[in-house]
Please model this.
Amino acid sequence: MKQSKSGKNKKSRKNKVTKEPREPWLSSADARVMRILLGFIFLALTIFTVVALVSYIFTWTSDQSLLRDPQVLSSAAEEASNSGGRIGLIWADFLISKLFGLGAFAIPFFFGAVSIACFRLRKINLLRLFMVSLIGAIVISLILAYVSGFTKYEYFLGNGLGGSYGRHAVAWLISMLGNIGAGCVLMILLLLWLVLLSKKVALRFDDLMWDVANRPRREKAIATDEDAEIEAEEEEEVSDDSVCDPEYQELQPDIITEVIPNSDSSSQETAGPITPIESDNPDDVIIKIEGSDHDFIKNLTEEEKSRLFDPRLDLPDYRNPSLSLLDDYRDKWHTVSMEELEKNKTKIVTVLGHYKIKVVAITAKMGPTVTLYKIHLADGMKISQVRSREEDIALSLGAKGVRVVTLIDSVGIEVANENPSVVPLKSILNDPKFKSTDMELPLAMGITVTNEPFFLDLARMPHLLIAGATGMGKSVGLNCIITSLLYTKHPAELKFVMVDPKKVELSLYAKLDKHFLAKIPDESEAIITDTRKVVNTLK
Model:
């Protein structure tokens, strides 16, 4: 019996393996045709809805009798004044009067976006756009209903500017919170919807509040700088006057200029070239620069030269992204406490004392994640004695990572901080040294243990491999590299070929396909997920 059961299991496994995969019910060509048809359908629906809604605003009063007619769709009914006909009248009345009022214009906006996505004119997240459109229609309906309640347009369009939905919802809010409370709630809902549309709204609001709070300080600093400039100019004027002092002029040697008339002008014309003087002094040697007959640049004007080597003229209005898009991580910046420094100092001196290594002084340099302890040894002590005890020092300190390095005037022990800080990329990109660097492809990599910005030039290391264990920061490093280049280079100077078979790490950069991503024209996705297409893209 056991053998028969195992035989049945083997047969069932073979049957499962030999099953062929089901073919999709639509081929790729049929799917494209279906997508194009849906695009035209939603485009027509968008145009029809917009025409019906706009016409309803001007003709709603004359069509009220037709809406109350139960046979509005029959041929016996009178003609509708709405440009969308009877169906357009019913459709517009449902969206404006029964639902969202003027907020109903968000509905054809969503239909138009679906049409654009079907025609692949732009990649759109339809689910997010649907939520944004629906929430926008509701928020606009509530705000218009709230505002129209204080004006003569309370019953405009039948149920007010906010429609029946907005009118009843605002009436409930006012009954619960009063006019002021309802207004505050609606303002918060509007701000949340704007943030949902774009995070730039919150960032610009934060920058505005910071500017308002720090404006007096900046004005005071500007006034101080102007006073300093005025004082510097006055000092220069005083120094100029001192040069003109008669006593000072008496100390100057007399300079006599003698003009020798040219008695024979023809001698200059027949004179040959000046013979170079032989001398061992480098200052007496003359260097002569010869031009080339094939140099076409010398005949160009300055304007033509600037256009010749400036590929950025293809996008002259392009501006680098604002640093306000990046977070400064102020809540994740920690300082090393004095207790931690004293504790580590005591442990270092103790463990070195066990091996008869005398320490004269210790200097600590605190970094964001690592603190460098400079150990000044006594006379006669060797650095190799400390390096050989690296494991013992690490065991004594009990820190996550300890490293012994050789410095110019001492030996250094790097100890990981108990509370490491997050280094914001914003601070490195905003550093004057990074802004003024002459590197072709600068990469902002972090901050050194001495709190100095650390950046590299990718042009000098064109082959770069990023490796490490899980959680060591490979993805963070890769994002820093890409972000550094995006903040420093023009789209005409830089193109990325991104390959992401797992569709995890680089999918967020798909929005850059119009400027920074290189792809084959027929491809729909800018991020390559099929490794077989990499060679064709690189070609």
Observations:
- Residues 471 and 477 are 11 Å apart (CA to CA).
